[in-house]
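Ligand: nicotinamide-adenine-dinucleotide. Inputs:
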Amino acid sequence: MKILMYNTVLKELPFVKDWAAKTGHEVVNLFEPLSVDNAAKAESFDAISTQQTTAMPAPIYKILANAGIKQIALRQVGYDVFDLPAAFANKIRLSNVAAYSPRAIAEYTLTQLFNILRNSKKFDRAMATGDYTWDAGGQAREIYQLTVAVIGVGRIGSAFAQMLHALGAKVLGVDPLYHAQNEAFLEYTTLDDALSRANVISFHTPLNDETRELADQSFFDKIQPGTIMLNMARGEIVDMAALEAALSSGQLYGAAFDVTPNENEFMNQKHELSELPENIQRLTKLDNFYLSPHIAFYTNTAIKNMVEIALNDAVVLANDGFTENEILR
Ligand code: NAD
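Predicted complex:
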């Protein structure tokens, strides 16, 4: 089978080459996103794949259908880039990669928890000025003595919970969906109970009507003073003004975020420090706030899985087969 891969990035190339060698399929890389201008290039191919943040508007699906293409395999989670009605109207089947590496995000969440516990930012900043005293950063706490509330026990939340359990921490799970197998490493409870008991709160829910600003002022009022907060899920889950107040008052001991509500204004871009959003400038000055540029997923395993899962699905759907990654109407 001949597959046209749109918007290939250099880090994907070795995995594309390996996959092609293992499966015997031919993959041609195009280093631009799928658009109305280049959709007809799929004509001599059997299947296509892309990863992109730019939208794929309605006319594209007609061009692809006329070129004999039956599917688009997206190499990412977010499929809001598709025009679903237009795709279905042209009998173009769609797939995405919903779980490329839950452990990647779970491991990064754990990394940042350890950084906060060990006061890494304070020590790093002090050492940069020649201050190598123990008091510069302060004493740490050990993870096995902590109670961690995992809000959202799905793919990533359950991977994180298992890691914490293996390290000896007490894990509380909050999720409207109950999975009995998770009882092996966590205790399910209500949100209010978790907030009253947790030393650490970590968000792993999708963004939806219930989770938007879930962590508002009343949420912060319910937590124990000195709690640690971790958000590697979606920025809009936390009211950033309430977060700032809690970090300054000591209601939060520290927080680590890989996402913010305004991340599209600056993440994965280069800016002068003075051009960053004002709340980001204030937050990143704090010793107890750790910000990262939406990199929790960014591991070699995740990129490999994005490529391999999407290309496998491209073959399956082009052969009129079935994949659990298909986006259904
Ligand atoms: P998932 O769908 O597997 O799990 C989400 C869980 O949250 C589900 O079990 C669901 O029942 C639960 N949930 C929904 N509403 C809830 C609520 N109000 N309270 C408690 N639980 C609730 O999702 P996932 O793949 O584990 O992803 C989790 C989050 O991580 C998503 O927001 C995703 O966008 C984000 N994510 C971040 C990165 C990154 O690089 N930082 C990468 C991938 C995913």
